[in-house]
Automatic annotation (TrEMBL):
<protein>
    <recommendedName>
        <fullName>Iron-containing redox enzyme family protein</fullName>
    </recommendedName>
</protein>
<dbReference type="InterPro" id="IPR016084">
    <property type="entry name" value="Haem_Oase-like_multi-hlx"/>
</dbReference>
Amino acid sequence: MPKFRGIVTSQLTDSDAVLSAGGRQCAFRFAPDEATDVARLIGDLHVGGLTPEELATRSPRIADKIPPLLADFNVLRLLIESDPRRAAVATNGAQLYRDIRRIADRTAARSARSAFLRAPVEQRATRRQLIGYALEYYWIVRAAPGLIGPALGWAASPAERTLLQDFLKSELGHDRFLEASLKAVGLGDAEIEQHQPLPATFSLAAALGVHARQHPLSFKASLFLFEHAQPAFIDAFDARCVALGMPEAFYRPLRAHADLNDTYRHEDISRQLMALDTAIDPEACTVTKRNVSLMVETLVRQEHTILAYYADDSAPLPRIFH
């Protein structure tokens, strides 16, 4: 029983129909003598509760055109299922979180994530690559409060608002740790400020910011990816810095920042926020799982990009282009 989503609006003339849903539009033309049936079909789809066969019976002049129209509407994500008997059982946030953790682990394994972990462990990471990692990490940490802040606007309960506020407060000022690291290897304030992140780094921040404004569930589900502890990586990073003779003032602040995340149990933020959602429809679950998978794949791509870009001695470090 197809039905238009709540955000779909329609405009009809004697021979044209325009359907809008957010920034998406679908337009089609019809013969003047089909106008009444088209208007009836559009009205029925706004209400829902009718099968495709019933829709065709109610609009006989366009009966043969209804199946392809419905197929096109579905491809454009204008439709939902309105038959309560066919609607799948809702999932709670705790279960969705467990599903997403498994999906993230599988996606990371499939993409062979750990390229940056292997580099210092195998003594292959160069001084430039370690500094490059710190620069990209710094850029995300500095951007974090601005990305998280808009999420407060959709907090659905006092408990959710408190969690988000506390998380935001705990993220403030963390960039100072990493700024100190970068200064320890000779980068000045202007260089740090003007650094342009790699495309993959920018994509991660942009995706999180978009989710914070447009898809709260994906935002909540993605946070753990940025906050989970990686003690093996931190140990390997420190050891490689020591082997390369890099100053302790460079790598110690990175460990201090990781310790802060562990102290405040930042990795739990996704679980805590999602536990407040008691009923999530199947479509929202699917969209969220897809978005988290894309985020994991982007994190993997970022690791490879950092290693590749900063291995090039001719590439700007930091990335400043005039």
